[in-house]
Structure formats: C-alpha cells, structure tokens
Specification:
- The chain is an all-beta fold.
- The protein has one domain.
- Helices cover about 0% and strands about 55% of the residues.
- It contains no helices and 13 strands.
- The strands form two sheets. Strands 2, 4, 5, 7, 8, 9 and 12 form a seven-stranded mixed sheet that branches. Strands 1, 3, 6, 10, 11 and 13 form a six-stranded antiparallel sheet that branches.
Length: about 160
C-alpha cells in the first residue's frame, strides 16, 4: 500500500509572488492531492491575499528542496524526493524563480491573512497527477504578500 505524505514550509520568508509548494510526479506512481494550506504568523493587520492551486508543464520553478514527510509511521518512504528544479519525481517549497512554464489554475481563491487558508477538495474535486505526466502540482501566492515573513504552508498528497 502506498502512503499519504506532506510537503511543508514553516515560518518561511517569501519573495515576490512565490510558488509555496511544487510537486512533480515521477514515473513510478500517480499523485492525488488531498489538501493544501497557507497561513501567516507575523502580521496583526487584516489584509486579503490571493492564493491558487495549479498545474504546470515545463520550465518549472526553482525551489528549496523539501522531503515529503510521512503521515503514518507504517507507510513506506515517498517515491517523491526533495529537489530544487521541479524535475519529475521531486518536490520543493518557496520558489525563488517561478519558471516560465504554462500554469493552469485548478482552484484560485482569496483569504484574509489573519485567518489563513485551507483547501480540502471534495471527492469529485480531487486532483490526480498521473505517473510520467508532463504536469506538476503547485500551491502559489497570487501577488506579493504585504508581509513577507512568518508564512507556513503545505500540501498533503497520496501516492496512488
């Protein structure tokens, strides 16, 4: 049985309109996106912030390598590994360059930074990225946040 994993960043400082998390399936398993979240702990001022989940093909972001964490200790290690270039079979967080590849919005939204944002798709809305596909999954800010420090974000996915 395959497992469920999270890719997260905690108390991150972000730059202009970053991609918070990017996961690109490899050739060994498909990925089903189960939830995504984004919140901020360094601001006491109410402000709206755009956010989106998306798919992206080619020219992937430059990210900080992040290893998927197990959500159950009985699961095997993820088939996805940490990487910095958005390559197949890798994931990362907090992009320094978003890459010029085409992005297709899956779920664009807005939230108040004092409340945070949580996306938990219903079964009919689950996004599945096929093994060996050319597209990866991302969670991104839409626009640059008013406060750049104190961001926590993540994506939970299942290998199927």
């Amino acid at each position: 049985m395959r497992g469920v994993y999270t890719v997260t960043g905690k108390a991150q400082t972000v730059v202009a309109a970053p991609q918070a998390v990017f996961i690109n399936p490899g050739t060994t398993c498909s990925l089903q996106m189960l939830r995504a979240w984004l919140s901020q702990n360094a601001n006491a001022t109410s402000a709206q912030q755009g956010v989106k989940t998306f798919s992206k093909v080619s020219v992937f972001p430059t990210v900080v390598s992040a290893t998927p964490a197990l959500t159950s200790l009985i699961d095997q290690a993820s088939k996805i590994t940490g990487g910095t270039a958005g390559a197949a079979g890798t994931c990362g967080i907090n992009s320094s360059a978003n890459g010029a590849g085409t992005e297709t919005d899956i779920y664009p939204d807005n939230f108040n930074v004092l409340n945070g944002w949580l996306w938990v798709p219903t079964p009919n809305d689950l996004s599945v990225f096929s093994a060996g596909s050319a597209a990866g999954f991302g969670l991104a800010f839409v626009g640059t946040p008013g406060t750049l420090t104190g961001w926590t974000f993540g994506v939970e996915f299942a290998e199927v």
